[in-house]
Design brief:
The structure holds 2 protein chains of 2 kinds. Chain A is mainly α. Chain A has 14 helices and no strands. Chain B is 75% helix and 1% strand. The chains are: A mainly alpha, B mainly alpha.
């Protein structure tokens, strides 16, 4: 069982080792000793950690909200037949396919305080008088990374919803149309309820990876300004790698596991229902 | 009924603007002269084209080395992961050993463990093994998150292969190994290719492990090299950065378009309906 070895050796073992490290005061290079829950107690009293935990949750919540609404709208749009619909379906996946760090670099350049093309256009249109400091102020930076996360994840939701829409029988919509239902009623009463299972899967799945996102935030803000966009993973990186305290970093990295277990439970349950439902 | 221009193409244009603008910005920055990046009547256009950024990237930085590193690691991790995944998926679906069902769920759970919570303990392990800053170490490391995913994809494919085929071969006296490689493998090729392409793009996208475990410039991957060496202090070489990003995106895009062609043509009648 080669996979059992790989899984055990390189996944289960590190996970357990991570939990163990979080209970020690290990510093990079020297073995630590067992300190019990001390790291966690320290974290709870640490305003930077509390801020990071809070922003991780807000980041996930607003990004998921954006991805569900914009992704579903895009799916409804490209589910129609029009000239170029195949090209549209292929092109919409670009943000999802491109390596995150590389596209995040392009966003960093778009967010430039002096040379931002967005500011240039807004000033041109007379919507604002001065260039926007996109990632210089805490609130702006928080909104900026959420927008980029939506940008990156939206295609995944759109393609998931597109598959969902195509599995809905056309008869249902025809019957509704005959009964005189408006498009909005048809969406509200037929499409959306039938899309709920796929929504659960998409959101839980995406939440797991949004909650533990690193690449995007690290590239754009490094957790700044003044820790405003700090999340679990960026803080864990700073504490463990930059700061050298592996023990405390491990505690930061392990802490979101509680949320992930909840999401994972939803995913496993939905996937299993989907399977048995089809069989 | 309103016109399709308003109903479809207008919202579509808004989406295209949002989703594709960063790529356009990357493209024009990569070919703009330096002074034009800072001072131009219209930043959305190019007045003077230049290849200086790309030339500078190839001659003045270790970009080609990083690119080669990423390619080696991605191909290695893909090969290793797909081989392991095929054997595992086959074992789970065909051999039905006791506990195979539970093992399947475990694989799925492993797939949803994000790599970003494992980088600290893995660092500890790499230090103990003295694998730190060794490029090839990334191959087994990447396999940890690719194998669960590929196994999951392959389980889906193998499940659809009729059992009778295997039974017929067995009646004819074929051994387990022969069945696995000569009978089932050719049928599973679409699944193997699909999972290989996913594996390749996942490795190509990876950042955190390479960032933490590779320290010398010689061993860095594209994403890591660009963010750690092309950004020095507050001086951003935007032309070079965007040129590097553009070139770094190409392999992922090629893999994806190949997959889309393959995927749509091969198995998804529903997309064409």
């Amino acid at each position: 069982m080669p996979a059992a070895i790989v899984l055990g050796g390189l996944l289960a073992y590190p996970l357990l080792l991570g939990v163990w490290l979080s209970l020690t005061d290990t510093v990079l290079g020297t073995p630590g000793r067992f300190v019990g829950l001390q790291n966690y107690v320290q974290l709870i009293g640490d305003p930077t950690y509390r801020g990071a935990a809070l922003f991780s949750i807000c980041y996930t919540f607003f990004a998921e909200l954006g991805k569900v609404t914009l992704g579903l709208a895009l799916a409804l749009l490209v589910n129609q037949r029009f000239f170029g619909y195949r090209t549209a379906r292929a092109m919409m996946l670009m943000p999802y396919v491109a390596p995150t760090v590389l596209s995040a670099l392009a966003w960093l350049w778009i967010f430039d305080p002096q040379f931002s093309p967005v500011s240039w256009v807004l000033v041109r249109l007379g919507l604002t008088h001065q260039y926007i400091n996109f990632i210089g102020s805490p609130t702006h930076a928080q909104i900026a990374v959420i927008v980029v996360n939506i940008w990156r994840g939206l295609p995944y939701f759109a393609i998931g919803y597109l598959a969902g829409l195509q599995s809905i029988s056309k008869d249902l919509h025809e019957a509704a149309a005959i009964d005189g239902a408006s498009p909005w009623q048809a969406f509200r009463r037929i499409t959306w309820p039938l899309l709920l299972p796929i929504t659960t899967i998409l959101v839980s799945f995406s939440s797991i990876f949004t909650l533990t996102d690193f690449q995007l935030i690290w590239t754009i803000t490094r957790g700044g300004p003044t820790d405003a966009t700090q999340v679990f993973t960026t803080l864990a990186y700073q504490r463990a790698i930059t700061g050298g305290s592996l023990g405390q970093g491990a505690a930061v990295a392990v802490s979101p596991v509680i949320f992930m277990v909840i999401f994972a439970w939803f995913v496993v349950r939905s996937v299993r229902e989907e399977r048995t439902g089809r069989a | 009924m309103r016109s399709p221009a308003l109903r479809i193409y207008f919202p579509l244009a808004l989406y295209a603007l949002f989703l594709l603008f960063p790529f356009y910005w990357m493209l024009i920055t990569a070919f703009k002269q330096n002074q034009e990046l800072l001072n131009t009547p219209d930043p959305l256009l190019i007045y003077h084209w230049t290849f200086a950024h790309i030339v500078g990237l190839f001659t003045g930085t270790a970009y080609l080395q990083w690119f080669a590193n990423t390619l080696i690691v991605s191909l290695g991790a893909t090969l290793l992961s797909v081989a392991i995944s095929y054997l595992t998926a086959y074992a789970i679906i065909r051999l039905r050993f006791p506990g195979s069902q539970m093992f399947g769920t475990a694989i799925f759970l492993a797939y949803i463990v994000p790599p970003s919570i494992l980088f600290i303990p893995l660092a500890e392990i790499l230090i103990r093994l003295q694998w730190f800053d060794k490029l090839w170490a990334l191959i087994p490391i990447y396999a940890t998150f690719i194998v669960p995913f590929c196994t999951w994809v392959l389980i889906g494919f193998l499940r659809s292969v009729p059992r009778e085929l295997e039974e017929a071969a067995r009646v004819d006296g074929a051994s387990n190994l022969l069945i696995m490689f000569r009978i089932i493998f050719p049928i599973a090729v679409p699944g193997v290719i699909t999972s290989a392409i996913f594996a390749f793009t996942l490795s190509w996208n990876e950042y955190l492990y390479a960032l933490v475990y590779m320290s010398s410039s010689f061993n860095k991957t594209v994403s890591v090299g660009m963010t750690s060496e092309l950004i020095s202090g507050d001086v951003f070489q935007w032309g070079q950065l965007m040129a590097g990003a553009l070139i770094g995106i190409i392999p992922a895009l090629l893999a994806y378009f190949f997959l889309a062609e393959y995927y749509v043509a091969g198995m998804s009648g529903s997309l064409k309906d």
